[in-house]
Design a protein that fits this description.
Rossmann fold, 2 domains, four-stranded parallel β-sheet, three-stranded parallel β-sheet
């Protein structure tokens, strides 16, 4: 599934159609024609990607790969980073503006969760010991490399807080843009007469906490439609009851109708920002979200959605049981989504570049 980071990069690439796109690894099958192949320049690690899609195997070599790129032919480098790319070397010429989606979560605030999961199974202790050593070295590199960009933009106030906490650097918040197509979306089921399902649109990964929604909807007998693919799908399917359906990947038009027909879109995990919430609101559909992270900066409590307080099935179940779609105004949801337009993002990014 194309996540928020890929969508932001696409927006930036469209702003500068002649600029090459550097990336550590590139999966053409997943991204299709989103980025023209002739613009993409991969790192030295790309030659090994055909042997394994488990990127954790390459972690120790990521810093060396990004530092090998030579940017001396450019005047300005604009990077987007969830990990490692902020550490490119420019030596002050060209200037470097970095858009930060988050300091690497598995190196900082989610380290213990990742290590606990890695430690399971027969070879778990060996995997955990290996990752502990790798993470320690990478945290040192990550914090040192964070000083290299000339300026930092962050995707939300939540990410800005983490940048200050882990990197000790100031930054400016520039919210990611919603694709303008969503702002003119017309769901076939836009009237939502007695809608009978809730919706999740997400990469199926453990940290997204989709298991909370499955447990809550299964216990309540509520219909839940899940759109997306990911490494956690098999586990999630095993725990799902008869009212939960998996839809895999869906195109834009299909998603518009799924959003438009839902009572609400559920965001069960703590998100850095969450474009899915904006897409849902752009279709006139409110959001039920865990009340922490970047989603609290877009969803307005009681007007475009509601929050549940604890990351537990019980807390989400209470929110689902008391939720009333008729209490929310579709036009207000759409207006809120429109505040995060591509135009606003473009103006903010150009202003930040001009200030370098």
């Amino acid at each position: 599934m194309r996540g928020g980071a890929e969508r932001v990069l696409r927006s930036i690439a469209e702003m500068f159609p002649e600029a090459p796109i550097y990336t550590l690894l590139y999966d053409e099958k997943k991204l299709g024609d989103w980025f023209p192949k002739e613009r993409v320049r991969t790192s030295t690690l790309q030659r090994y990607a055909r042997f394994s899609t488990n990127h954790h195997l390459y972690l120790p070599w990521f810093p060396r790969a990004v530092q090998a790129w030579d940017f001396r032919e450019f005047d300005v480098v604009l990077s987007t980073s969830s990990a490692f790319v902020h550490g490119i070397l420019t030596n002050g010429a060209p200037r470097h503006l970095c858009y930060v989606h988050s300091p690497a979560r598995y190196l900082w605030d989610r380290t213990h969760d990742v290590l606990a999961q890695a430690g399971k199974g027969l070879l778990g202790p060996l995997r955990r010991a290996y990752l502990e050593r790798v993470f320690h070295r990478l945290r040192i590199w990550d914090s040192e490399a964070a000083d290299r960009p000339d300026a930092l933009l962050t995707a939300s106030l939540e990410v800005q807080r983490r940048v200050e906490l882990y990197w000790r650097r100031p930054s400016t918040v520039l919210y990611p843009p919603i694709d303008d197509r969503w702002l003119t979306a017309s769901p076939v089921q836009s009237t939502r007469e007695q809608p009978n399902y809730f919706l999740i649109v997400s990469t199926l990964a453990r940290y997204k906490r989709i298991d909370l929604a499955i447990a809550a909807c299964t216990s309540l007998g509520i219909h839940l439609k899940i759109v997306g693919e990911g490494p956690d799908r098999t586990r999630l399917e095993r725990m799902a009851g008869p009212t939960v359906a998996f839809y895999g990947r869906r195109n834009h038009d299909e998603l518009v109708d799924l959003y438009g027909g839902a009572q609400a879109t559920i965001v069960p995990g703590e998100e850095d920002f969450c474009l899915v919430a904006l897409e849902s609101m752009a279709c006139g559909t409110p959001v039920i979200a865990y009340g922490k992270g970047g989603v609290t900066e877009t969803v307005i409590e009681g007007k475009t959605g509601v929050f549940f307080a604890e990351p537990t099935p019980e807390s989400l179940s209470a929110a689902l049981s008391s939720f009333n779609t008729q209490s929310f105004n579709a036009d207000l949801c759409k207006a809120r989504a429109a505040e995060f337009s591509q135009k606003r993002f473009t103006e903010g990014l150009r202003s930040a570049l001009a200030a370098l």
